[in-house]
Design goal:
The protein is α+β, with helices and mostly antiparallel strands and 158 residues long. The protein contains 4 helices and 7 strands, in the order E-H-E-E-E-H-E-H-E-E-H. The chain binds coenzyme A.
């Protein structure tokens, strides 16, 4: 089994490596230039990377859209590392981070290709598909459990 570390970014170099990996998976196949993989929310968002042999092979981003609502974006794993559970681990770790931040709902804008991947993780499809970068996408949502329903000690005895 490969020794892959999924964790927050540690250095500026790792941030740059993450942008490159994001570009390789999400933008280069569309013929888009370096730089198109970033947006204005990146500097304030929370980034996770999957690292193997000092190389960023996967990444994903969480940011707060409004009170209680988080957005997961730019979820991507290098092709040669697909189907090993790395994408799943990235999302599961972001869900934990979202709970820490007291977020109640997570939204992801996903390519239709990845619909099954998010369904397995508990996300539900909403609305009609739409085109973004000429690729059909959908919004999917996940409701996070309330801390009150997680711990019986918080509930009144009845
Ligand atoms: C979508 C994406 C992030 C998934 O990453 P991944 O690391 O391959 O995901 P996982 O390995 O966790 O899950 C994928 C499949 O592998 C299976 N899997 C999970 N752990 C596994 C393991 N240890 N061994 C073998 N298979 C495993 C999962 O059950 C899943 O099966 P499914 O296809 O039947 O749903 C990746 O395919 C990707 O980067 N795609 C291109 C970009 C993209 O579409 N991003 C998301 C929307 S914008």
């Amino acid at each position: 089994m490969l020794n892959i570390d999924v964790r927050p970014i540690k250095t500026n170099q790792e941030l740059e490596d993450m942008y490159y990996q994001r570009w390789l998976v999400l933008r280069d196949p569309l013929g888009m230039e370096r730089g198109t993989e970033k947006d204005k929310y990146d500097t304030s968002a929370f980034h996770l990377v999957a690292v193997y042999n000092d190389t960023v092979i996967g990444s994903a981003r969480l940011r707060e859209l409004s009170e209680g609502l988080g957005s997961i974006a730019y979820v991507c794993v290098l092709n040669e590392f697909h189907n090993r559970g790395i994408g799943t681990t990235l999302i599961e770790e972001l869900i934990e981070k979202a709970k820490e931040k007291n977020l109640r709902t997570l939204r992801v804008m996903t390519r239709l290709d990845a619909l099954k991947f998010y369904k397995k993780l508990g996300f539900s499809q909403t609305g009609e598909s739409f085109n973004y970068l000429d690729i059909p996408h959908l919004f999917m949502y996940l409701t996070l459990p309330s801390p009150l329903t997680l711990d019986g000690d918080f509930l009144p005895n009845t």
